[in-house]
Design goal:
alpha/beta; Ribose 5-phosphate Isomerase B, Chain: A; five-stranded parallel sheet; two-stranded antiparallel sheet; 7 strands
Length: 185
């Protein structure tokens, strides 16, 4: 399989991103690099956002993000509506990220996996496709999309005015309830 893929990293993932971009090009993928371009420090959320926007807009079909652990990149990319990013450090998880969760973005940790394992993980993720309506996970993925849509359109729900109040709440000067302090354990 080949197609378009957006890649990005912070300085911790730079060398691995470069190796993976070369690996992808050798296999016929059209690679777009969204940064970083050296080992100079950058803020990983900025790079993750650029890659995630390329996915959400349809500019690129898949995205690959690399940082020290893959965790921060996944969190940041998942903030962009319509994007499902998954961190994987083994081939089975990478495959399931695509088959079961329709993840368009894969995140890796350069401090966790070496280049050869990273290539295997990326290959496992790229070689499978989400099965759409035929997938046993189709309903679950649609629910993920609905949750994304709901909060993008309406924002977070407000507390129900008719809900019971916490007796230990205090009132502020404006008359709004403030939550009680956590109980000591």
């Amino acid at each position: 399989m080949t197609g378009t893929i957006a890649v990005g990293s912070d300085e911790a993932g730079f060398a691995l991103k470069e190796a993976l971009a070369d690996y992808l090009r050798e296999r016929g993928w059209e690679v777009s690099d969204y940064g970083c371009y050296s080992t100079d420090p950058v803020d990983y959320p900025d790079v993750a956002e650029r890659v995630a926007l390329a996915i959400a807009s349809g500019e690129r079909a898949r995205g690959l993000l690399v940082c020290g652990t893959g965790i921060g990149m996944a969190i940041a990319a998942n903030k962009v509506p319509g994007v499902r990013a998954a961190q994987a450090h083994d081939t089975y998880s990478a495959e399931r990220a695509r088959l079961s969760n329709d993840a368009q973005v894969l995140t890796l940790g350069a401090r966790v996996v070496g280049p050869e394992l990273a290539k295997s993980i990326v290959r496992a993720w790229l070689e499978v496709e989400f099965g759409g309506e035929a997938s046993p996970s189709y309903g679950k993925v649609r629910k993920l999309d609905e949750i994304d849509r709901r909060y993008r359109e309406t924002g977070l729900p407000q507390p129900d005015a008719g809900a019971p109040t916490n007796a230990s709440s205090t009132s502020s000067e404006a008359g709004e309830a403030t939550p009680p302090a956590p109980a000591a354990r």
